[in-house]
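Entry type: protein chain
Record version: 2
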Amino acid sequence: MFGVLVYIGLLAALTYFSLRQPYFALVAILCMFGLEQWGSLYIPFLRESTAFTNVYILLLVGYAAFVAFKRGYFSFTYHPDAARVRALAVLLFAYALFTLLWVNEEANAASRWLIAGPYLVASIVLAPLLIGRIDDLERVQKGFILAAGVLVLLLAVIPDWDRRVMRVAGSQDAVGFPLTIGQFAGYLLITSAMHVDKRLLNIASALAVAAVSMLVTLLSQSRGPFLFSILCVVLVLPIASRNFNLRQIAYLLGIGVLLAGLAVLLFSQVDIASERWALDKMLSDMLYRVSLVNILLAEWVATPAAWLFGLGNSASFGILGLEVYPHFVPGEVLGELGLLGLGIYLAVLGYTVRVAANFRRLEFLPANVRKVYAATFGCFLFTFMLSLKQGSLIGLPELFLFATLGEKYFFLAKRESRRNQRLAGLKHALREKGVI
């Protein structure tokens, strides 16, 4: 009964706040897969109707976007700083959809798009529209830390974990997409780490969230999310600070040592399948993924007509068979969408990194604004790292969700920076004249 109440309570809270403030629907979409996993453990209906939670939240996001439009949060005026990455992402997936005209029938591509399409629309088109003010994304991230923190804590301590899955209460049925749970916990770790400040209570709560997040990734045996989330925290911390000096370097090293120590402590205490974490096992898994990419690219090379335009999106499922895909998104894009698709894909990544570089150069911004962008870019970087070992182009909408959110936030932060600069100039002029 407790598990049912938690599911209903969290879903009701996400609904209530999303209906009040459209941007809160982003918290719902970030918690969607974690909440789905929890519900499947305790509610038989959700085990049978696995898409219920996802469809409900996607509809909630759609309604929130409609409300945001009515409130004037966005217009159809094109701003390059706010929509270049989004435009390229839309172009990439429009082209990927177009390639279904010549993809092999064994790929079953149309049915895959029927499943993935709504997630892509919500992530690329609707999500950035929900952010209308500079404070909105910060509220989203703090709401996510709270909601996801509760959910991850419950996932860590209540279900019976058996290797990589959770056992359904009162039965031998198993529930769990371990990589999805690890990915969810990774987003929580990165987001909470970026919002740490000098207050002792804040530091203690961030460490608790980090410990629980890492514990869940260990319980789910998610090697990639476990390692990459820690690495991303260290890599994106410089973005959270305008001045990167020796003090910041020492702070960065301290965070890295602290997270590494916490990881070692948890690793030694948690009962995990040690053979999965052995170097030879990880190497063999990596070589297996390389072999899958080689098969796809060998087919692409053997088909000169596909060099430019690709074999068609989802073609790898038909080539590799048995619902197997390459587990390496850049290689998948090259083989399935050709040099043209790869060029658009790399442009999305390139512009996202360029936005990060430009953001770091902005002046007259408060520290909290930098932390919000650092968390967003950290989640993007984390998802990109995951795309080098798992997922497919249409199966990782989060990569483009964080890319487009980061771009929209940069646009708002740039506007805020100029406003603060004008105010600073005005105050300086008034001081010069002795007015203040």
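Comment: Residues 2-432 form one domain.
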